[in-house]
Amino acid sequence: MDLLKTYSNNIASVSSTMIKGYVLTDTQFVVDSIEFTMYFQREVSGNWSTIATRSATVYTTDQQTKTEYLTITTGYNYRIRTIHTARDNEDVESRTITSSVLSM
Question: What's the CATH number where 32 sits?
Fold first, then answer.
């Protein structure tokens, strides 16, 4: 069963040493829960590594939005990778997406 309607993420600069990640998940109808996991990632020598993880779950809803902040070191590329999961009774649907790259 298709539970997820739309899902997106975005990364942006807040200041020279802080970034924010935004996540949005919409479902087709009110579900038991919507959860997200957000991985803040930094590129070093062409390889991406996770430097912080944030997650949250909301219950009995059809939408979840969340903004998370992270203090960073300048001189690197950053991105976020998000997992969007909807659960309703025994049905589970999950999608993973990666944001654009932010150069700091």
Answer: 2.60.40.10
